[in-house]
Amino acid sequence: MAEFATDRLLVTARLMDLVDKLKRMGGCKYLIKKEYPDGNGGVVFEISHPISLWSWGEKIRINMIPYNDFQTVVFITSECRMPVQVVDWGRNQKNIDDIMGYLLSGLMNQRI
């Protein structure tokens, strides 16, 4: 199984505000491949990070689910694209830190 990292946060922001902010993430090293509803009132984003000197690329999945009118639960997972890659050199956690740093800038959040 490929290496992966994951995180889960409760964010004080409405779902659609986070969706809009994530869509504006363009122009950086992450490419949004798909966006679709999760069937429970939330939204799923599938994002990719290209091949680099340190990895064969990663698949990133973000699932955002409304918690109440003003809070959203955000699940994020970054996984090596190559299923036989057993060492990620911290790349998956860096992907999570980069994306969540952008998405949560200026917002209150807590790990759950």
Lay out the secondary structure.
Elements: E1 4-11, H1 15-23, E2 31-37, E3 43-49, E4 58-68, E5 71-80, H2 91-103, E6 109-111
How does this model look, in words?
The chain has 112 residues and is α+β, with helices and mostly antiparallel strands. The protein is built from 2 helices and 6 strands, in the order E-H-E-E-E-E-H-E. The protein has helices at 15-23, 91-103; strands at residues 4-11, 31-37, 43-49, 58-68, 71-80, 109-111. It has a 6-stranded antiparallel beta sheet. The longest helix is centred in the C-terminal third of the chain and has 13 residues, at 91-103. It is globular and about 40 Å long. The mean pLDDT is 87.
Structure characteristics:
single chain; 112 residues; alpha+beta; 6-stranded antiparallel sheet; 2 helices; globular
Q: Number of helix segments?
A: 2
Instruction: Name the strands of the widest sheet in spatial order.
Output: 2-3-4-5-1-6
Gross morphology: globular
How much helix, percentage-wise, in residues?
Answer: 10-25%
Following the backbone from N to C, one meets helices and strands in this order, namely EHEEEEHE
Strand composition percent: 35-45%
Radius of gyration, rounded? 14 Å
Helix/sheet category:
alpha+beta
The separation of the N and C termini measures 26 Å
Let me know the number of strands. 6
- Average residue pLDDT: 87
The biggest sheet amounts to: 6 strands, antiparallel
| Unreliable runs | none
